[in-house]
Amino acid sequence: MLSSFRSSYQSMTRKRTRDQQSVASRLSSCSTSSGEDEEDDVNHRVYPNWCGHRHIIQRRGFRLDTCRDVKQLYQRYWESLASQGRCAPNDLPGYLRACSGRSDDELCPDVGLPENLFRGTRCVDGTPVVIKAVHLRSREYDVVRYLSSPPVGEHPMNHCIPILDRIEIPSDDIAFLVMEEWSPHLDADPPHTLKDFLGIIRQHLEHIAFMHAHRIAHLDISIRNTVTDNKMRYACIDFELSRRFDTTNARIRCLRATEVPPEVENGECSDPYKIDVWASGMFILKASQLTGFQPPELLSFITHMLDEDSIRRPTARQALSVFNSIFRTTDTKITSR
What we know:
This is Kinase-like domain-containing protein. Residues 1-337 form the Protein kinase domain. By secondary structure, the protein is an alpha+beta fold. It has 2 domains: 2-30 and 184-333, Transferase(Phosphotransferase), domain 1; 50-180, Phosphorylase Kinase, domain 1 (2-Layer Sandwich). Helix content is 41%, strand content 13%. The protein has helices at residues 2-16, 20-28, 50-59, 67-83, 93-99, 139-148, 194-213, 262-265, 272-291, 296-305, 316-327, 330-333; strands at residues 62-64, 117-122, 128-135, 163-169, 174-180, 216-217, 226-228, 234-236, 243-244, 252-253, 269-270. A 5-stranded antiparallel beta sheet has the order 1-2-3-5-4, sandwiched between helices.
């Protein structure tokens, strides 16, 4: 079964291989056809003056990481390793960067994050957070604000990463999204049982079906945009390309995303919801490869989602229904690889 999955995966991957120059040229000549004003000036990434906003953020109960915080983090890390009889070099780049600050109170950005993100803590209990700067009038902020507001934010099928606060600064057209810090990749805490793996896929399909029911398309579904709280909760992140539509018959043209379906590659007007279904199929396929959980029923399920004809692909709601009907008994009976 493993070799069959690998063969099928490689075949699908080869079908997606394309001339990058040709695609880039085609994308540059395309525009969306959703009928809305793109307002590109508000939908690009925002790189704020973190030092200038740190006190506003702190008044809301959150503290940006300083050189002192980072050095203490590494000290705790080394002490933890020492208690296990292990060790690590004390010249790690993050630690050296913190030591090079002019003072312990100087902000210390994580070089592994883009400049629109900053690590910090919640003052009341020390909970680690990640703070993201977005334009106040961007599509991303519109989507996140909608998905995190009650009653939508409280729905059990809404698997967004928890938003602890939204800090709006109208004078600068900036909003700060304060999120719990979850592990950034599926491989950071892979599931230990088939039941847990299927639970991840179910959470993913529930969330996509939920967003589509509210006329929201994610448009950049991928493994790198899935995070975990290390307690078997998984969530979608990064809504930079996401859109909320005013119709169920929305169409878009061109997309810069990780997983791009054939109709988008061909420059056609595309159903944004079927784009998400394609990307979800690729997400499930790669998650299966990554974790090694490859039940025989899964490949045919994925293949339907990856149909090159978008009309023949299921909706997210249909995919969730089929998934539940196939695996409702499987994931309750099997608890190990």
